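Q: Make up one entry.
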Amino acid sequence: MDSAQRIALGSIAVGLLVLGLKAAAFWLTGSVALYSDAVESVVNVAAAIAAFLAVRLSAVPPDREHPYGHHKAEYISAVVEGALIIVAAVAILNEAWGAFRNPREIDLTPLGVGANVAASVVNGLWCLVLFRRGRALRSPALVADGKHLLTDVVSSAGVLVGVGLVALTGLHWLDPALACLVALNVLWSGAQLVRTSVGGLMDEAADPQTVERIRAVIAANGDGAIEAHDLRTRHAGRLTFLDFHLVVPGDMKVTDAHEICDRIERALHEIDDDMVVTIHVEPDDKAKHAGIVVL
């Protein structure tokens, strides 16, 4: 089991702990807002399980049916997580509507509030771990899980402030109103997560800064070639796929052209070891006089 899988497995354990704490907070207080917080934690657990399965599947080596590997499984996990977030928001809105129609008393016991605060602290600390390790491992599933938890931390803080206002003012309608705000925040985060993940599934290109670095590396390490054009990039999990055409003199030996390609690939792997590079060598009559001029 690699590092990404261990972290994903840890998310399941953390999710179950936080769910238990938030469920206890709702049971002790009867607050609909705290109920909304607990429901979001149910989604956290389901999403953590989906992330673990996706990270595990993405680590499977390429096979005959999947010669490019299984890395996009992580994007599928993130889409599933976004869908689960939307389901949670609908459940929260349904409960909030019931509370609007039939207002209920809430009991802000120190134990109930303390359980919710403890859950938020645990979530916040684990969120930092997911962001740091997810970006280091270039795992979309772990980063998506971290973004989801960050939303949970922010909404939990808002819930605690709102519940405190209910206790101070006696305005019980604030409790379901706050739950509705949490649901809208959850919906927004779910929509953003799905949008980002669909971009990965649709072979979204690398960011402009990365593309510029790639172009600079090719220009600086392509001595002997004439130009490079038709450069394309796409992401698949932690891998970046890159292909381009490299124009060389028509009378150049195959071994010399191959040496140029190897030199460029080595330089590209120095900036990103998870880059898969494909170079199509062409003679000088194929030059487009556009793209990357080799210095």
About this structure: The helical segments are 3-29, 32-58, 73-101, 110-136, 140-169, 174-201, 208-221, 254-271.
